[in-house]
Known about the structure:
Layout: H1 13-21, E1 28-30, H2 37-42, H3 49-54, H4 58-66, H5 80-92, H6 98-111, H7 122-133, H8 140-146, E2 149-153, H9 163-169, E3 177-179, H10 192-206, H11 213-229, E4 234-237, H12 249-260, H13 267-288, E5 291-296, E6 298-299, H14 304-310, E7 318-319, H15 325-338, E8 344-349, H16 355-363, E9 376-378, H17 388-401, H18 421-439, H19 447-466
Parallel strand pairs: 1-2, 2-3, 4-5, 5-8, 8-9
Antiparallel strand pairs: 6-7
Helix pairs in contact: 1-18, 10-11, 11-13, 15-16, 16-17, 17-18
Amino acid sequence: MDFINDRFMIESEVGVRLYKDIAAQLPIIDYHCHLDAKEIYENKSLENITQLWLAGDHYKWRAMRANGIAERYITGDATAEEKFKAWAETVEASFGNPLYHWTHLELNKYFSCNEMLSSENWQEIMQHCNQQIAGEDFKPRSLIARSNVEVICTTDAPLDSLEYHRLLQQDSTFKTRVLPTFRPDDVFEPDANVFARFVEKLAALTGHDIRTFADFSAALAQRIDWFHESGCRISDHGPVTIEYQAADEQHVNALFSQKRGGKALTGLESAQLTSAIFVMLAKEYKQRGWAMQIHFGAIRSNNSKMHQQLGINTGFDSIADQSNLAAGLNQLLDAMAKVDALPKTILYNLNGSYNDIVATTIANFQSGDDGVKSPIQFGSGWWFNDTRRGMENQLNSLADQGLLMHFVGMLTDSRSLVSYPRHDYFRRILCNLIGSWVDRGEIPDNDRILTRMVRNICHDNAVNYFRF
């Protein structure tokens, strides 16, 4: 029997049925990823499997370093063959790591290859893959279509022109919708000088004379309108910690003016200004019916030597911890709710030990006012939790404290055009978990309810929640 088959990752007969008959057939809504709209629009052929798999994939880079591979064979000037060989050697050592499963799911899905990649057969598999990559089926749009993707939401800075999103929307030959996501990292920039330069660029782009916090808010609202007109319905935020600190309007304005002038803020002052910006942005999102994503808990670029050598997003990031998270998270959402500024919100924690804090927090702010079930969501296992154990823990915490039936499901959070089997991985884990509950007699084997649950989580909830 092939390694990748209908029973892969699924122990329960009910789970196999739910996967084969329902989950495996559903389209994908990838509402958070890091694909490049320009790359999709230009639709250029890829060179080889090494470029497809290893260029920019810091998940694989971390594993290769752990396997004793020299940096030359990871991010350096080694040949494509040398880098692929180094990856194949690493795959042999990756039992228990989701990279092993992702690698073979991708080989099976896109290359019809059921061989196990190893140091013995890497040349044959590389040749097999490269022969196919030259064809039309491996251009970006074809890969997306073959993956059965309905919607892609990229990640975009507030000052982006969104030129390629608009061009794609005008192209009737490509059926997948490619929509921007408003990711205002620059708005929360801790360095006052960098922040001041961003405000100058924002002022020039919008035509606003930005002197006060109100001016700043109006200019950002203009950019949010630009994103909305370009199809955006989601924002995303990536704070390391959630630290809510209240401040009155006069004090917020003074803090903004200080930072706008390039003067550094204290830790408390920074938290006060950040909190005010969060609430201001949330109000704008709610007015437009957007969903607000908050990915928190990543401490980045910890190896300063390698950061200087390679830059950001190169595999030197870790899980952060935080004191008083529960208070900060509840207070932030409460501050938004008090002024009718709490939009649909998805919270992702990188530290798995905070699962129940997040799951119980979202229950405090659920409401049916906007006609959406579970408008405050506990997001899917993210980054270091994007594993079988991490996803099962997230699903169980959500089921314990809320309603799993209304979960908006999986996303790729990836820069790779062939990472869509991660949705398949999630769907197998989900069906196996539900099937195990049936097997233990904890829930009934009611085909109507189970079918609805799987359809909801894998596809329908995202359609109803985001309203693209």
